[in-house]
Specification:
By secondary structure, the chain is of the alpha+beta class. 44% of the residues lie in helices and 18% in strands. It has helices at 3-25, 36-39, 59-64, 66-71, 147-166, 172-186, 200-210, 216-233; strands spanning 30-34, 48-54, 75-80, 91-99, 102-112, 123-127. A hairpin with a 2-residue loop joins strand 4 (91-99) and strand 5.
Length: 235
């Protein structure tokens, strides 16, 4: 990746995290980041994993208004909420923002105080009350989703794949291809097959195929992800 692009992406991420922190400081009990940014081994393509703890009697209002909240921090390109990532009594959203510097992913975890946990490796952004140390407690509840939800998930994972390919991670592309194959089998049999090759070329072939079954909004997201892939891969 070109140094100037890397610098712009990092600056945008830092600015976004600062705005998120300032917004929630007087609206929540505690906020922290975890993952690569907390560990100190992130790069220009790293996302923001932000955990926000609310009072138990205020969490539902925050969840209800979450999309209006997310819009405060940038232009939303696409969002997906994988239920297996929901904290107990809370909510999880993967949001990809379209910024002047490029695309930025923020993973939001909203959690009530009664089930909130702070991992030992987390960095606290602000705190008004002690939060129990430990691993995330997952919510077992599931609701049935429509085919468009699955497609949004795969599109979001295609964005995640960009950084995995750039980092030469050998494990992510097989996962993504497996999700694509299962979606083709169950929902969109007209999708062409793709090869399991760990390259941006293969990823862009998959994205091009997904455009044929996408909604207009999903198509816009796919186009932006393809352009970002070219920007990162110099193609």
């Amino acid at each position: 990746m070109k140094p100037e692009l890397s610098k712009k992406l990092i600056e945008t991420r830092e600015q976004t995290l600062s705005v998120i922190t300032n917004f929630f400081t007087d609206k929540a009990l505690e906020g922290h980041v975890f993952g690569s940014l907390a560990r100190g081994d992130g790069d220009a393509l790293s996302d923001i994993d932000v955990w926000v703890t609310f009072k138990d009697d205020e969490i539902q209002e925050s969840i209800k208004n979450r999309f209006e909240i997310y819009k405060r921090f940038g232009t939303i390109l696409i969002c997906h909420e994988a239920q297996q990532n929901f904290p107990l009594g809370g909510n999880y959203s993967l949001v990809i923002y379209d910024t002047p510097a490029g695309l930025l992913q923020v993973d939001y975890f909203f959690c009530p105080l009664s089930s909130s946990r702070v991992d030992d490796g987390a960095i606290v952004l602000f705190g008004k009350t002690p939060i129990q140390k430990g691993k995330m407690v997952y919510d077992p509840k599931r609701t049935k989703k429509d085919p468009s939800d699955k497609l949004s998930f795969v599109i979001c994972m295609c964005f995640v794949a960009i950084k995995k390919i750039v980092r030469k991670d050998p494990d992510f592309m097989p996962f993504l291809v497996s999700e694509y194959v299962n979606m083709k089998k169950d929902l969109f049999p007209q999708l062409p097959a793709v090869e399991n090759v760990n390259s941006l070329k293969t990823l862009n072939e998959m994205l091009k195929n997904l455009e044929t079954v996408a909604t207009p909004e999903q198509g816009m997201a796919i186009g932006a992800i393809r352009r970002f892939s070219a920007q990162v891969g110099f193609k």
